[in-house]
Amino acid sequence: MSYKQTKTWVVDSGEESEEQILDLQEAGMWIRDGKLVAFPTETVYGLGANAFSEEAVQRIFEAKGRPSDNPLIVHISDEEQLDGLVTEVSNKAKALMEAFWPGALTLIFNAKPVVAKNVTAGLNTVGVRIPSHPVARQLLREGQLPVAAPSANRSGRPSPTTAAHVLLDLDGRIDGIVDGGETGIGLESTVLSVVHDPPILYRPGGVTVEQIEAIIGAIKVDPSLQQSVAQPLSPGMKYAHYAPKATVVLVEHREELERAVVEAKNHGKKVGVFATVSKSVSYADEVIVANGLEEVAHMLYGTLREFDKRNVSTVFIESVPKEGLGLAIMNRLEKAAGSKK
């Protein structure tokens, strides 16, 4: 599939000029008309379509090359829109919404039948969130309807954190992109089902398990986070994701990095390393260093794409503890590596 042109609206998240308002009004109108428009959120760039239109949503799957049994997340501008999408909101859900909305938490509810069936992948549930990014919020207000929006990349590739990443993957395959600069968190939202009690974590993300449990008490972690599932109940559960063209290998212990790099180079590989220290990776061809977990999360997808630009063939990445934001980071890294450790 192809379009004649992918239009770009360049906006500034810190202003609301008349020109910017007009641009976002046009982008919102395009979504209402069934077009595909990518836009920034505080997590990654999303690829938006009218959540009530099966035809528009189908174009998301076609543009991304995304499997049709992989459900989408619906983005709304305010809690009033939630009433038209879901059958009930539990007290725990209300507490989480008060604590984390707008923000990087997607809650799964029982869905009303108005939601396009290909949004839910035929399930009776739907994931919903209110993004906190000011451009996303303004676009959703201008669009005046719920917007289904997975990450705006080709399926399986690292998620986009800049408009340039979106255009690299989807230029000519989507109608428009709202360029609002680089995203913040850099990892997708946390996905939590509040249909169950206790709630079940389907995807770790920008809001941590510890933060959630501080609000509502203990939750469960779905076992499919560690294994393959036949029908994914949330985005990011089943298929290989987040992978660059290079082979990604996780290294659990810092002292193993140097040895692994030397061995790969002895086999003629151009080697990249993404780590939280630089002194132990002096033999690598390309080294990118992050300072702490928040910077690892923010830099992760952009770093994987940067290694591709540098024609790196093997990327070694230092594992991090699976707690706090580290749980989300390792979830993405293990999928990018295909569990190669």
What's this, in brief?
32% of the residues lie in helices and 18% in strands.
Segments where pLDDT lies below 50 for 5+ residues?
Answer: none
- Count of strand segments: 15
Mean model confidence by pLDDT: 90
Tell me about the largest β-sheet: 11 strands, mixed
* Coarse structural class: alpha/beta
Task: State the distance separating the first and last CA atoms.
Answer: 37 Å
* Total DSSP helices: 10
Encode the helix/strand succession as letters: EHEEHEHEHEHEHEEEHEEHEEHEH
Helicity level: 25-40%
- Please tell me what the overall shape is: globular
Q: Nearest-angstrom radius of gyration?
A: 20 Å
Strand order of the largest sheet: 1-8-2-3-7-4-6-5-9-10-11
Percentage of residues in strands: 15-25%
Task: Describe this protein's structure.
The radius of gyration is 20 Å and the shape is globular. The strands form two sheets. An eleven-stranded mixed sheet has the order 1-8-2-3-7-4-6-5-9-10-11, with helices on both faces. It contains ten helices and 15 strands. The mean pLDDT is 90. It is of the alpha/beta class and 341 residues long. The longest helix is centred in the last third of the chain and has 17 residues, at 293-309.
